[in-house]
Specification:
This protein is an alpha+beta fold. The protein has five helices and 17 strands. The structure holds calcium ion.
Amino acid sequence: MKKINLLTAVLCVFSFSTMADDVNQDSRAKVSLKNQATQALYGAELYSLEKVHFGKFIIRMKMLSEPGVVSSFFTYDNESWQGEGRPWREIDFETIGSKPDQLQTNLITGNAAKREHSERMTNVPNINDYKNYTLEWTPKSIIWKVNDEIVREETAADSQQVKDMADTPQTYRSNVWISEVIDWVGRFEEAHLPKYQVIDWIEFYDYKDNGSFELSWRDDFNSFDTKRWGKAEWSFDTNMVTFAPENLQIIDGKLVFALTSGTKGIDKADFLKAQK
Ligand SMILES: [Ca+2]
C-alpha cells in the first residue's frame, strides 16, 4: 500500500510539472469561459507583402493593455495555419490584457494541430505609452528588447524553437484584437471601446553573414505604402473581432489601429482626444 501511495505521489508530481509546461493560450482556450459582446466588433491588422529571413526590427509603438485585448507586433509564416504537416513559425511581442502592463513574448513552432509555445511574461510599466520594441532574429538567437533593454533572449544552443524558426522566411505584422479566452486575456468590457494601438515608425535592418545588422528601410507612416503593406479583412478562431481596413488609418504621421463596437472606422476627434 505504501509503495502504491509513493508511486501515486511521484506520478502526481510528474503530471503537475507536465501540465504546467503545457499551459498556454491554446490549452486555456479549451477550458475557459468566453468573452461576450452585444454588437459586431472590429479590429485591425497590418501585414507585409514581403517576407524576411532573419533581421532586426525596431518598432516605435503604443501598445494597448486592456482586459480582453491582444495588441501585437510579430513575424509569421503565412502558410502556418494551413496545417497538413506544414510547420508553424511565429515570433511575438504581445500585450495580454489579463493584467495591466504585461508584455508577453512568445515563440510558436510545431504545427497547426499541435503548436509549441514558450510564453514569457514581462512587466513593462506604462506599456500604453510609446516605447521602442526591438526584435533581433538571427540563426543563433532571438532577442526581444524594450527601450533598448533586453527583456528576453533565446539561443539556438538552448532552444529547439530558435533552430526550427531559422528554416522559414516570414512576413511581419501588427494587429489589435479581442480574444474570447478569458483565462488568457481577461474579461473584455465592450463599453471601453473604441480603443487604439499606434505605430509612429518602423525600421528594418538586414542581417549580414558577419553577424551585423544594416538599415534596409524605415517607414514613418506619413502615408500608407501599398507596395510594402496590406490591411487584413478576415478573422480567425477565438478572435471576436473582424479585421477591417477602415480601422487601420494614418492620422498625423501615425498608423492608428482601432478597436470598435457596432461600426467600422476611426473617429479622428475621438482618437486625438484619447492621445492626450
Ligand atoms: Ca510617424
